[in-house]
Amino acid sequence: MSQFTAFVQPRMGRIFAALGLDVEYVRAQGNTLYHRDEQGGDIPVLDLMGGYGSLILGHNHPEIVAHARALLDRNLAVHAQFSLRGEAGRLGAALSDVVRRETSAKEPYVATFGNSGAEAVEAAVKHAELVRGHQATALADDIAQHAAAAREAVRSGDAVLDADAFRLPAVRARAPQDESVDALLTALEAHNAAALATRPLFLALERSFHGKLVGSVQLTYNSGFRAPFTNLGARVRFVPMERLELLDTIADEERVALLDTEIDAGRIKVVERALPVITAFLAEPVQGEGGIHALTAEQGRAIRLFCNKVGTPLILDEVQSGLGRCGAFLASSLIGLRGDYYALSKSLGGGLAKISAMLVRRSLYQGEFDIIHSSTFAMDDFSSSVAHKVVELLEADDGEVYRRVAERGEKLTAMLTGLQAAFPDVVEDVRGKGLFIGLQFKDQGQARSMVLRGGAYTGSLGYLLSGYLLRQEGIRIAPTGSAGNVLRIQPSAYLTDEEIEHLRGALERLCRILRYEDTLHLVHPASDRHIPKPRAEIRDFRGAVAGYEQGEPRPATGPVRKVAFLNHLIEPSHLRQVDPALADFGDAALRSFVLGMDPVKTAAPYPGVRIDSPLGSSVEFALYPLMVASEQMGGYLASGDVAGIRADIEERVRAARDDGCTVAGLGMYTSIVTANCTSLRVPGIALTSGNALTVAMGVQAMERGARDRGWRVEDATLAVVGAAGNIASVYSQLFAERLGRIVLVGSRRDGSARRLQNTVHGVYQECWSRIAEGGELTGIPARLAEEPLITKWLAEGPADDTGRGRAIAEYLRERYGRDPFLTVTQDSAALKEAQLVLCASNSPEPFLTGEHFGPNTVICDIAVPNNAVAGLAEQRPDLAYMLGGIVATPHGESLHPSARAFLQAGQLFACMAETALMGLAGLDHHYSYGNISRQQVIDIAALAKAHGLRLADYKSAHSV
């Protein structure tokens, strides 16, 4: 693990590694970054991220570097706070001059400097609110003076109250009886006090990004950034860029009036005065993080006219689009849009300095802002001088850099547009201005490749593509922050034809990969890169995954409910079934990929399968998978570090609930790591581990296996592997009613011996319950009924049954020296004593081989992953090895072909079937939640039979 991951960004560092973006760059020049290979050699990378738009002049521009060195060589006074900052003054004047030149504004601008774009936005927001506050205070002062004048006019007899003075509801509510001038003015004062407490409102565009600081994040549209901090920030309403006509409606909805008095012809009248509520309108001329969307001239006019009409200032966020990025100093000038405030940063620092500037019209500037807004590192002479040099370079030769950006942008856009024409099924759009371009790919949500669908579902597709471009093509690029299928291209003004051609070839190959769904090339950078890529050519896998056509659903005569089932990879090699393009990968490479994806486990839900009950109800059964294997799940359990995986599972359950599911089933290790669902806190959805039906079907499978061998179950000895667990315990309770002896086999892990004794006590407790109920007894209960202790208890009559199981176990050991019915052991050699073996251990790896079993044994393996090694039936043909817990659907309904693992068409695992059954039966409460009971197993078995879910023909060997 890198120190960056360990000490700076633990989560992002792991995500970078998962996606193949874990690179440490060591030097840079122009449009090229360099990192080192394992031998220490330089690897060049074409940098098209451009520091998120900070490098319009490229990395380490020689004139900027020389200027910075000269500043340091002369021992420049960097920190000279509380003085006249000469370099800051020169920079402020230069910025004002450039903005006035480009916008034809007559009025100069005053600059407030900071260290980042978000700080510039916050400075503008604070200043705009300062102005609005002054306006509101001045209005309130005027109203107070008018009220005093009205009171004096009435008292002196110079005026009387107008007949309509009390007509407004706001007045009448506060002065219901008294119609004196004092009552009127008191009512107005109360109304105005409430109105003045109205929280100010900011307007911003949907898809906007204005930063992630406490204030600026409230103005950022992406709820993932904003929602956790909503309670800390301002009131904001977001407006669609394409529906600016809504602005007038918003202004009407947000209108707040203060009530004033005026004297007209000797009468005191009540009039309304509009309170300034909207502090500012914020807009990016070209939205960056939102997916590269540029305002049109028409949209710009609509925004400016609205701001003028309601008297609110316009803050133009040119942090990313300004400083020449779009072919002019200000992108807004290209559409004739003029702001009251401008926020500048990124390229202002020339790639070396961290600096931002907020510019405001001088007539708006409030002098006290000098005092109430400041920053230790703002206005430093080094950063200010570097930024001034950047402005000089941009403005040099009558704006040659701007012309170059426009020309390079046209050539780059033409190349990308040609790519779109060649791959219309892959590329959705090419848009932007100058060298601020977005390449939008088609949504891959309907792709047959699970890798592509998963990337689309989680919004991470663009990052997966970026990993490919970096590792396979030597190009550094990234998606926009809030639109994961849009690659943002922001090179320097000095982009060459050769670099454009390099990008064209790389993107053409990437488009072919997406068209043909050959995800091997996308996955390899995210796997162990020491393992060579198994093939270089791009193959067509569009037909490799069978289509999923379910046909016309049967007419529903009852309700159709949605249910979800959470599953995970049994082992990484199953990815070959999930996505056939990965078939050429070896097991080690697939394992590396799955382990590396640990920080981004979420995968796309599979299409739902409709399952119909013969009783008329139906369910839409959908899988919500996690990209995690049994090995990892076992590791979480062994280490005790289950908080992260529990959070991942809880997120999937919430997603299912939000998708309309009424039941969520947890399969395989998802139930184990959540303590059979009990650790989850998700209201509004019923949960089940599916353990009850798993037990019921396992019992039926074992009985069928013995019957097929011509045995009577009653004559056999049963061995239970993993007997310390709840599922195996309930199996033992059920079989105890028919058998004379059971061998309980546990692991050697800490606590296993204690849990095995708990299983013994549970079995005997249930045996006592059968005896106490009366009726015909078989198996161990029949044998126990002959014991003197039991005879004594029956003679004593009803009593507290608590602890009977423990008492029976202790009695048997004392009387016989050992337990004659239940053998407890941690030695798997004891399996050879049994004719029936149930495998139910939660081991992450198979561990039982042919050497563990006696001749002609019937083995039912319900563990996922299986406890028995692959090929057991071939090793020992005398054994009857079956995968238990497999259920046949009522009408042969089947899971998606790539999600079946060991299953055949028309089959579900029993834990899946219980989830479906809860939906079919309309159960709206948790079922197999925590430990299950013998009665739950009996009840769910009867319910399954009623709804047409039955034991499938058992499988006698492993298959995938």
Describe this structure in words.
With 960 residues, the chain is α/β, with parallel strands linked by helices. 40% of the residues lie in helices and 17% in strands. The strands form 8 sheets. Strands 4-15-14-13-10-6-7 form a 7-stranded mixed β-sheet, with helices on both faces. Strands 28-27-26-29-30-31 form a 6-stranded parallel β-sheet, with helices on one face. It is globular, with a radius of gyration of 37 Å. The two termini are 35 Å apart.
Question: What's a concise summary of this model?
Answer:
By secondary structure, the protein is an alpha/beta fold.
Identify the strand order in the major beta sheet: 4-15-14-13-10-6-7
Shape: globular
**SS element count, helices:** 31
Structural class: alpha/beta
Calculate the terminal CA-CA distance, rounded to whole Å. Answer: 35 Å
Summarize the main sheet: 7 strands, mixed
Proportion of residues in extended strands: 15-25%
Instruction: Provide the residue-averaged pLDDT.
Output: 93
Record keyword descriptors for this entry.
disordered C terminus, 34 strands, globular, 960 residues, 31 helices, seven-stranded mixed sheet, six-stranded parallel sheet, alpha/beta
Helix and strand topology:
Blueprint: H1 3-7, H2 10-18, E1 25-29, E2 32-36, E3 42-47, H3 50-53, H4 62-73, H5 86-103, E4 109-114, H6 117-156, E5 160-161, H7 169-174, H8 181-196, E6 201-205, H9 223-226, E7 235-239, H10 246-254, E8 257-264, E9 267-274, E10 278-283, E11 286-287, E12 293-294, H11 297-310, E13 314-317, E14 341-344, E15 356-361, H12 369-372, H13 381-422, E16 427-433, E17 436-441, H14 450-458, H15 461-473, E18 475-476, E19 478-480, E20 483-489, H16 497-516, H17 520-523, E21 560-569, H18 575-578, H19 587-596, E22 609-612, E23 618-629, H20 630-639, H21 643-658, E24 661-666, H22 669-673, E25 686-688, H23 691-708, E26 718-721, H24 726-736, E27 742-745, H25 752-773, H26 779-784, H27 788-796, H28 804-816, E28 822-825, E29 836-839, E30 858-861, H29 872-875, E31 880-883, E32 886-888, E33 907-909, H30 910-921, H31 934-946, E34 950-951
Parallel strand pairs: 3-18, 5-9, 6-7, 6-10, 10-13, 13-14, 21-23, 21-24, 24-25, 26-27, 26-29, 27-28, 29-30, 30-31
Antiparallel strand pairs: 1-2, 2-3, 4-15, 8-9, 11-12, 14-15, 16-17, 17-20, 19-20, 22-23, 32-33, 32-34
Helix pairs in contact: 4-13, 5-13, 6-8, 13-16, 23-24, 23-30, 23-31, 24-25, 25-28
